[in-house]
Request: fold
Amino acid sequence: MTFYNDIYPFYHVQRTSFIFNLALLTVILVFVVFAIIFLLILPGIRGKSRLFWMCRVLISLFIGAVIVAVNFTSDWAAASMKANTTYKSFSSGIVNAEIGLHVGLSGINVTLKGNPVMQLNETIDYNEMFKWTDSLDEDYTEALERGLPNPILYIAEKFTAGSPCGLYFQYRYSGTYASATMWTAFCCWLVANVLFSMPVILYAGFMMVATAAFIFFSLASFSTIQNLPACVFAIGTASFEMGYSHSFWLALAIGVLCVVIGLLVILLDCLIPEKMKEAFSVDVDDEDDDNCLTEGYLNSNFLEGVTTITFTGNKTTEDASDKLTLQS
Reply:
């Protein structure tokens, strides 16, 4: 078999891209566009608040981008090993390759890369995606029919519903609940950003803490995979064990950042509420409007023939007025 236009001849469709798939790339581009748009309008912000607004918006966009992106990554947990293994069924060919397993919230990626890549007159560089859906067993059957290499089939078989390891249901439900709580955290992040633009800074801080709480709930849900009995992944004399990977630790860092921001906002709003409102440019216009309405003047032409009645004890007096000044 030869490599032709990024597609192996026996593949029906192009293989799933690893880590940076299309959905993840779309999320990154959307948030990058928002950041660029804000940077373009940044010169229009006057005074010293320009730097504060830039940091505030960029940090907020970074938090939102991470919360959404980790739903589509394939590296919440990962493991890899190098081994000498049989390449395909009904073949005595032995290849030296690195086998990788990458677990995401929506499925697993199984990779196989030869060392060197060219062996047995083939390019050994595979990347297969198996989703947490009811059709995972069908995907595995299809992989058998397509004649994928033995290491990929061996690892994929461990995650089928009928496997004695019992990984399928635990990983599937853990990923589903983790994804649901992560999307809830994204909704809390949206509400927090809206509240930051209103004279309720305290509640915005509470929503940032709520965002962090749901991120931690998501991490806790995914961490339940550690409760499973150990399932050995062994190929030849090599083996590996699963461990948390980049997306897990990145989500944890974002959760801690949200906690710090939320608690800091709550504390400062309790200590110096006026300065906080001034920093976030809220409630300033309302005060200016009130100052403008403290004094008003009426045209004397509209007051001709109008009398004012003043009550002093039991005595009533009437005075003609041709000019009225309202003083609050």
Q: What stands out?
A: The two ends are 89 Å apart (CA to CA).
